[in-house]
Design goal:
5-stranded antiparallel β-sheet; about 0% helix; elongated
């Protein structure tokens, strides 16, 4: 008799329901139970959870840029309505909204601009412009930045942030880099996407020693397999492909080998059928067997009978004289069996 299964609330499969009017986020849950196979079975879809408390929405100013009005010379902070999820992450439920009560005046500043990066010239240059001080006391930059040419620094190649790019068609791996520079505070900034360095190209080699040979019975082939790898700039061997068909070593045809198999005799049908195993020759020149003995429908021998060497059997009970015979056939080697 099946035992009753406990039905529980499962909030993992459900999203939170946002109620902006009440300033709350209400957890939702599905009703589930665990069946005898250990699988979770849902019996009701997502609805407001009964065993989880609503979460109060909070204003998050850090997620939004300030609203700048150069005509009014004001900067107004903006916020998003957010809540904290169970995993501790912050979830936004609205777009950025201006908070007029926290508007501040715009002032002139020469040290509040982001650096200007010129990848063509290979430089990064500090800039200055209008600024304002936000509610945290941090000076924020506005538009109309001007470059300070005396502060220009050269961009450098940073390889640590990029993975090598692998091209299996050409069997090469090319080192990549980002352009970066270090600002006046000693902070490194990446200013480009990863890009290949044509002067740092590694050759990919294959190794068949750790891979089994793949047997393709449909096409009658034994296919050598290999892993592909290369040695990177740090001298580390990097595998870029697991065991797959070898690029350098061609497939070997499967051949029929009869030596280890005996013929199968069917007395009722008066036939003897030759049997074979499928084999191939490996890279070391050794013959490898890949199948059990199986009949060869193209090598069937007819069994014949010979009464000349056998006496007639006399059956006194039935009153008959019964001729007797031996059965034999000539095998593939011309031998009578």
């Amino acid at each position: 008799i099946d035992q009753a299964k406990a039905i529980t609330e499962d909030t993992k499969a459900c999203s939170m329901r946002v109620d902006l009017a009440s300033g709350q986020v209400i957890p939702q849950a599905a009703l589930v139970y665990t069946n005898s196979a250990g699988q979770s079975v849902q019996v009701r879809g997502c609805q407001d959870a009964e065993n989880s408390s609503p979460v109060t929405l909070a204003r998050n100013y850090e997620a939004c840029s300030d609203l700048v009005s150069l005509s009014a010379l004001t900067v107004t902070p903006q916020y998003q309505e957010t809540y904290t999820a169970k995993d501790g992450s912050t979830v936004s439920v609205t777009g950025c909204t201006p908070d007029a009560a926290k508007a501040t005046a715009i002032q002139k500043s020469y040290d509040a601009c982001a650096d200007k990066v010129d990848t063509t010239a290979g430089t990064a240059t500090r800039q200055y412009q209008l600024t304002y001080t936000d509610e945290d006391g941090v000076r924020q930059s506005l538009s109309e930045c001007r470059t300070d040419d005396e502060t220009a620094v050269n961009l450098v190649k940073n390889y640590d942030a990029c993975a090598d790019v692998v091209d299996l068609d050409s069997l090469t791996a090319t080192r990549q880099y980002q352009l970066s520079y270090t600002d006046t505070k000693g902070v490194e900034h990446a200013v480009s996407k990863c890009q290949p360095d044509s002067a740092a190209v590694f050759t990919i080699a294959e190794d068949t020693s750790s891979c089994p040979v793949k047997i393709d019975l449909a096409n009658g082939q034994a296919i050598p397999q290999a892993v592909l790898s290369y040695v990177d700039a740090k001298g580390k061997t990097v595998q870029v492909r697991g065991c797959a068909a070898s690029i350098e070593t061609a497939a070997t045809p499967l051949i029929k080998s009869y030596e280890a198999c005996t013929d199968v005799v069917d007395v009722a049908a008066l036939t003897a059928t030759r049997r074979y195993q499928l084999t191939y020759t490996d890279q070391d020149g050794s013959q490898q067997t890949v199948s059990e003995c199986q009949p060869d429908s193209g090598a069937v021998f007819q069994i014949t009978e010979d009464t000349s060497s056998c006496p007639v059997k006399v059956d006194l009970v039935s009153g008959k004289a019964i001729p007797q015979a031996v059965l034999s056939y000539q095998d593939a080697n011309g031998k009578t069996v």
